[in-house]
Amino acid sequence: MKSTELPAIAEPHLIRPRLHALLDEAVQRQVTTVQAGPGWGKTTLVAGWAGGQPRRVAWLTLGRRHATVPAFCAGVASALNAVFPPAAVPGRFGFVANEAALRRLAAGFTRPVPLILDDLHTIDGSPALRVLAALIRRQPAGLRLVLLSRNEPDLPLHVPRAAGRLYPIGAADLRFDDGEAAALVGLLRPALPVEEITALAEGWPVALRLGAGAGPADPGEVIGDYLSREVLAGQTAAVRRFLTRTSIVDEVTEDLAGALTGGAAGRRILPALQRTTGLVVGARYHRLLRAELRRRLEREAPDEVAALHARAARWYAGAGMPLEALRHAADAEDWAYLSHLVVTIAPGLSLSPQRAELAALLQRIPPELLPTTPEFVVCAALLVLFNTDLGALPSLIARARELLLQRSPDEQVVIGTIVDLIEASALMRVTGDMPGMVTAIDGILDRLPEAERLAVPIAAVVRAVATVNKGVGLLWTLRVGEARRYLLSGLAVAQDLGMLLTVVNAESHLALIAYFDGDLREAEKQACAAYHRADRFGATGTIQVTGGYLALALVEVERDRLVEAQAVLRNARHSQTDPAEATLAVVSMLVRAHLAIAGGDHGAAAAALRQARDEVGPSLRAPLIDRWLDAVESETDLLGGQPERAVQRLGDVPGASPAELLILGRAHLAAGHRSEGEDLLRRVTERSDPLSAVSAWIALARSAEARGDTARCTSAMARAVALAEPAGITRPFRALGAEHLRRAEQVLEPLTERELDVLRFLPSVLTANEIAEELGVSVNTIKAHLRSIYRKLGASRRREAITRARRSGLL
After folding, report:
1. What is the 3-state composition of the chain as percent helix, strand, coil, each rounded to the nearest 5?
2. HTH luxR-type domain spans which residues (predicted)?
3. 701-756: pLDDT as tens digits
4. Domain 347-571+586-607 belongs to what architecture?
C-alpha cells in the first residue's frame, strides 16, 4: 500500500457517527490534532471518515523515510497530487523539495484541502518537523492539517490554539462508550458475553478487538502482550521502572509515587503518560495496563513487592485513608503494622459500610499471632463481633488487659480505651448490665481528653460509639429523657464519621423511645430509617437494627396488623447475636406477649411472659425491662379476669408511666373500683402519650356507657378517635370492645366537659341568660360555649344542634 493511499480498515468496522461529526467540525479549523497512544483507533477512525467524505482528502502515512526535508516535502506533494493531479491545479510546477515550494503548491487550491498526516510521531525530532512547524506558523489558506500522533508533537500548536484555529481530539473522545463497545463486540463475536469484554476494555478500542478475538486464550494475556510490544517497549527503562513500582496501588498521586519510587519523577512522568498513552486517566492506570505492570513486577522484582506494599500502607495511613492502609499492610504481610493500624486509625471501619472488607483483611492474620499482643487481641475481638459469636469475648478482653500491663502508659491509654469500649458496648450490652455499662462508658468519656492529647485519630470514633451506647444504657435504666439526648448526639457524630452501624443503632433505640412515648408515627419513622440505612450496605441482619425491628413490630400490633408484626418479629430474631443481647432477647419475648394479648390468647400471653422472665439472667440489670415485664404481666392478668392481681402489682409503682397508669386504671375498673379507675384514666389522658390516651378514653367511654351516660361516652370516644386516626391506632378499639361506639366519629371535634353541661340544656326552653344562672357563669361564657358547640356539631342554629347531638348519641 502506498503511503498516500487511505489505509485499509479492519472489518467488521463500526461507524461511529458522533466522532465523524466531531471530525466534520474539526476540519473547519486550520489544525486538527488526533493524539492518543497505541490502540486508540486513530487511523481507523480518520480513514473511515475520510473514505466517506464527498470532498477530496489527502492522506500521507509518515515513516522514518520522511524524516528529511526533501522526503517530507515530496511525500506531502505526492499526497496532494494523488487527489489533485497537477493538470487540475493551475500554476503547479516542478519538484517540491522545501517549505517554500509546499506553500506555493498549496496556494494553488481554491478551496481548503484536508491533509491528513498519520503516524506523525515517527518523525519526532527530525528536520522534517521544522518544515511542518513553519507551515503551521504561516499556514497556506489552501491547507487544513489533520495530525495523527501517539504523543504531543514538538510543533508550535500554541499559535493556532491562541487564535481559536486548533481542534484537539484525544483518548477521552476516542474511548468507546458502553453502547459503542457493545455494538463492536456484537459485530466481532455475536455470541460473546458483552459485559465481560467491555468491562475489561474500559473503552480502549484495541482491547475490545483483541478481547473479542482472543478465542480460547485469556483476553487479559492477549492484551497484555500487545501492551508489552506497543506501549511499554517504547518507554525508557526509568519510565518502565516507575510504572511497575507504582502499579501496586489503585490510584497514583505524585506524592504517593514519590513514596513508592523514592523520587519526584511522578510530576514529570504521570502527565506525560496521560498525554501519550491514554491509559493513565488522572491518578488511575487502565486496569489492563495495571495488570500487565503487576505481572512484570512479580516477574522482574519479586523481592520488592512486599516492601512496596509496606511503603504504600504507611503513606495511606499518614493520608488518613485507613482501609487502603490496611489493604497494603495485609498485602505486605506486615501483620504487626496492620494490627497497629486497627487500634489507632481503623476501629471505626467495623461500624461502617467497609466492615465486611475489614473482616476479610483481619481473617488473613495468621491465627497463631492473635493471642500475642494487645493489638492482635483487639483484631481477634473484632472478628468475634463480626461473626456475632460473642462467647469468646470475656477471655479476649482479659488477655488484652494482661498484655497491656507490659506497655507504656500512652499505649495503655490508647489500646486500653478500645478494649474498654469493646467490653462496654458489646460484652456488657450482651449480658445486660446497663448501670455497669453506663458507668464504664462514663469512665471512657472521662479518659478521652487524654487520648486527644496524644493526637489519637480514633478519639472521635470512640466518642460516637460511647455516646450512643451510653444512650442505650440510660434508656434501659429508666432515664429516657437523657437517653434520647445521648442517642441524638452520638448519632450526629457517627453520621459525620460515616459509621453507619452506629447511626442504625441510635435510630433503632430512638424508635423504641418513641414507642414508649406512645408516638407510633415517630417510632415507625425511626425504625424504617434504621432498616433502610442498614439495607443500603447489606447489614439488615446485624444486632444494631434489632431494636428497630422490635419497635416496628410493636407499632404493627397497635395498628392491629398482627400478621405483619409476626413477620417483623422474625426479622428481629434473625438479627440477634449468639448469645443474644439480654435486653433485646427479653423485649423479643415481650413483643410475643403483646401479640398474644392483642389476639386475646391468654395462654399464649402467659407462656410468652414466662419465657421472657426465663430470659432474665442473673446479669441482667435493666429497670425498664423489669417495669415492662410487670406491666405486661398485669395486662395478662386483666385478660385472664384477675384484675386484683394487677392492682396489687402496679399499685405502688413509683413515677408510673402513662402505660402503667392505664393498666392500673383499667384494673381498678374491672375490679369494680370505678372512682379510682376513672381518676387514673383521666390522668393518662392529660399526659403526652397518644397511644395510652387512646386506650384511656376508650376505657372511660365504656365506663360511661355502663352507667348509661351516653353523652360522656360519645365525647370520650370522639376524643379517642381523634387521637387514634392520625397514627393509625386501631387495636384498642377492638381489644377493649369499643367498635360499636365508633359512631362518635360523626362529631367533628370532641366536646369539652363544660360544653357537654351546656348541651344538656339545649332541648329545654331556657334562654342563654337562664342557662348561665343555672351553671353559675356569665352569659358571655354561655354564648362562647354555644358557638363552639354549634361549630363542633356542624350546626347553624339551636334546633339543628339538638338534632345532630341526638344522632351522635350526645343527648
Report:
1. 70, 5, 30
2. 744-809
3. 999 999 998 888 888 988 898 899 888 899 999 888 877 665 444 445 678 888 88
4. Alpha Horseshoe (1.25)
